[in-house]
Amino acid sequence: MRSSRDGRRHSRPALRRQDAHAGGGHRLAPVRGLAIDLGSSGTRAWVPGQGLVTGGPAGWGDGARRPVRRGQIVDAESCAGLLGHLADTALGADRQDSVIVLSHPVLAGREHRAQARELLAALGVSGAVVLNSASAVAACAGQLDGGPVLVVDMGAELTEVALLVDGTVVDARQADAGLSDLEPRSMPAELVRNVLDMITSMWREDKHGAVRGALRRGPVLTGGGALHSDVTGRIAGRLGVPVRIAHDPATAVVRGAALVLESAMGPVGADAVSGRPVRLR
């Protein structure tokens, strides 16, 4: 494990909402929306009426130019171009009646979250929600308000474990290493060891039994690592509990963000979440 961070001292609400027009008075519900998972290995978006979309400006997917690394925005200009492209394609030039939901890693730093808010504000939407990825996964799994939930997100450049209680992140751990850092032969053992180390650390510092309760329900596994049966089987075996693999784990974050988007938009955005990708050009 390259390095790790923990968030045990930082309880965070599941949702952080920022509205461009925060004043009083009656406001019409947004009629257009866009949910975005700004990931280290790529960006996924969801548009009501279209479903899951992929893509960005020419060249943005090149590893050398990727604007997000290990869950942090490293190139704000490129990131602005990517978000602008997605917003132009999905929402058009006039975005006053639209809302965007953008996910970020649970332990993304204050600077990253501030940059994300600034980038969204620059898009000129009427409302924006900055959502941590664990809450998005819990929403996708239907576990946002049903007691303690343990979300294990095994991505390309980050591995995160987050504990949510009644929809709020109360503890989190992060390893700055993911699938892209591990050799294929050693990947299952190393990834499982990283996950178990973080869960064990949570267990030892849990004074209220929330981790035990979440484990009894079964941790929710997501990210590219959840697609490997040798990884998920080892985690279940080592923990001695059944695990729940998120449906289509590689897209669980953006689909959870899409559910939050639907809530923010009201009945207008209540289309079913589609898993069929559409290319944005």
Helix content: 25-40%
Radius of gyration: 18 Å
What string, H for helix and E for strand, traces the elements in order?
EEEEEEEHEHEHEEEHHEHEHE
User: Structural class of the helices, strands and pairings?
Assistant: alpha/beta
On the 0-100 scale, what is the average pLDDT?
82
Low-confidence region ranges: 8-26, 268-281
The count of β-strands is 15
**First-to-last CA distance:** 37 Å
Number of helical regions: 7
Shape: globular
Q: State which percent range the strand residues make up.
A: 15-25%
Strand order, biggest sheet? 2-9-8-3-4-5-15
Largest sheet: 7 strands, mixed
Write structural notes for this entry.
The protein is α/β, with parallel strands linked by helices and about 280 residues long. It contains seven helices and 15 strands. It has helices at about 75-90, 110-120, 135-140, 185-205, 210-215, 230-240, 250-265; strands at about 5, 15-20, 30-40, 45, 50-55, 70, 70-75, 100-105, 125-130, 150-155, 160-165, 170-175, 220, 245, 280. The strands form three sheets. The protein has a seven-stranded mixed sheet with strand order 2-9-8-3-4-5-15, sandwiched between helices. Strands 1-12-11-10-13-14 form a six-stranded mixed sheet, sandwiched between helices. Helix 3 packs across helix 7 (about 250-265) and helix 4 (about 185-205) packs parallel to helix 6. Residues about 10-25 and about 270-280 have low confidence and may be disordered.
